Amino acid sequence: MKVVVVGGGLLGLLSARALSREGAKVTVVEQGDFGQESSWAGGGILSPLYPWNYSKAVNDLAAWSQRYYPELIEQLILESGVDPEWTPSGMLVLEDDQDQITKATTWANQRDMNYIEWDPQALAEHESEIGGEHRGLLFPEIAQVRNPRLLKSVLESCKRTGVELLANHPVTELIHNEGQISGIRSNQTFYEADVVVVCAGAWTAKIMAMLEQDIQIRPVRGQMIMYRTEVGQIKRITLMDDHYVIPRRDGRVLVGSTMEETEFDKSTTEQARKQLSDFAEGLYPCLQKVEIERHWAGLRPASPDGIPYICSVPQYEGLFLNAGHFRNGVVLAHASVQLLLDLIGKRPLTFDPEPYQLDRS
Ligand SMILES: Cc1cc2nc3c(=O)[nH]c(=O)nc-3n(C[C@H](O)[C@H](O)[C@H](O)COP(=O)(O)OP(=O)(O)OC[C@H]3O[C@@H](n4cnc5c(N)ncnc54)[C@H](O)[C@@H]3O)c2cc1C
């Protein structure tokens, strides 16, 4: 089976790797460089931010991914020699609203998710770098990955499994023969395929418009800043007021993020830099003493309900989508690829596919 994957972000590369391991002849066609868009820009938290506010469809994929990510990471390290730094740093949610705490603990109990509740005194004892008085819920098993390294690792694994990787090839046309997909055309040439998988992130609607298909995926800009601290000074992913801090193994600390409707504009703004640094330096006063090392933005692929489309496209035999993961593309990626493989291989499905279809209710 010949497969063309459109888009070389995390979803495209992981899909390609998995399909190739199952024996398909896979080509990934990417308009720019591999892994430089949303997948590079993201934080790599392996959980939705406040999972109790998300649908079952998102949480089911997240739970499966969380369970099997360590195995995937081990395989990737062996295949590529690059360590994506899967780290179970835990996610600490600072929350003073009792209704939200009840909602969170009820959800965690239903899902058998471990958590520890800290009152302000316990929090101050465990997390002495945090400024102010807060109550907290710690989810100790939640992990993170380092996005650029994960992408490098998957890209290297794709190379070694024989995936053909074509950078600087913007796809300009999806070709079909009376509804049967037969390939794609890029700016350079035509590529024949039995199956085409569109993983074009925030650009997916543009690709599908080539077939006059109206798919609702829009870009939502997210800006992040990064500090460099001493190793271990900040220990946990920390969430407060829909913003977060993510400490990497080498002392770098990411702070995110904004949610902005700016179409395909990926520039950064002074206003966001101030908003993020005010948040971070209030939460962790130790950050007031260090410089901001980097500031960037990425475009999240947002579906209207935040649930990705992982499905076949009914009018076109051989055309599939794995796109629209919005704020959760890294955590959902592993499970999304599993569902995609099940659908393409017409084998028993790991998940109920209905919530991820184009015409879901
Ligand atoms: C600031 C920020 C923080 C985030 N934090 C997290 C987090 O902590 N945890 C989490 O799980 N998720 C997070 N996310 C979300 C996550 O990063 C995305 O959901 C995910 O990366 C989407 O991956 P993708 O492969 O679909 O898209 P992308 O990585 O954007 O890849 C799509 C690719 O398609 C290519 N393409 C587009 N058009 C064409 C064309 N015509 N021809 C060929 N190629 C084309 C693009 O160039 C691009 O490389 C965050 C996102 C942002 C922006």
Q: Can you describe this structure?
A:
The structure is a single chain. With 361 residues, this protein is α/β, with parallel strands linked by helices. It has 2 domains: 2-78 and 147-217 and 304-356, FAD/NAD(P)-binding domain (3-Layer(bba) Sandwich); 87-142 and 218-300, D-Amino Acid Oxidase, subunit A, domain 2 (D-Amino Acid Oxidase, Chain A, domain 2, 2-Layer Sandwich), CATH 3.30.9. The chain is built from 9 helices and 17 strands. It has helices at 10-21, 38-41, 56-80, 98-110, 120-126, 147-160, 204-209, 270-283, 329-344, and strands at 2-6, 25-29, 91-94, 116-118, 136-139, 164-166, 171-177, 180-186, 190-192, 195-198, 218-228, 237-240, 243-247, 252-256, 292-302, 309-312, 319-323. Strand 8 (180-186) and strand 9 form a beta hairpin. The longest helix is centred in the N-terminal third of the chain and has 25 residues, at 56-80. It is globular. The two termini are 32 Å apart. The chain binds flavin-adenine dinucleotide (FAD). Residues 6-12, 29-32, 37-39, 41-45, 170-171, 199-203, 207, 222, 224, 256-257, 298, 300-301, 323, 325-331 line the site of flavin-adenine dinucleotide.
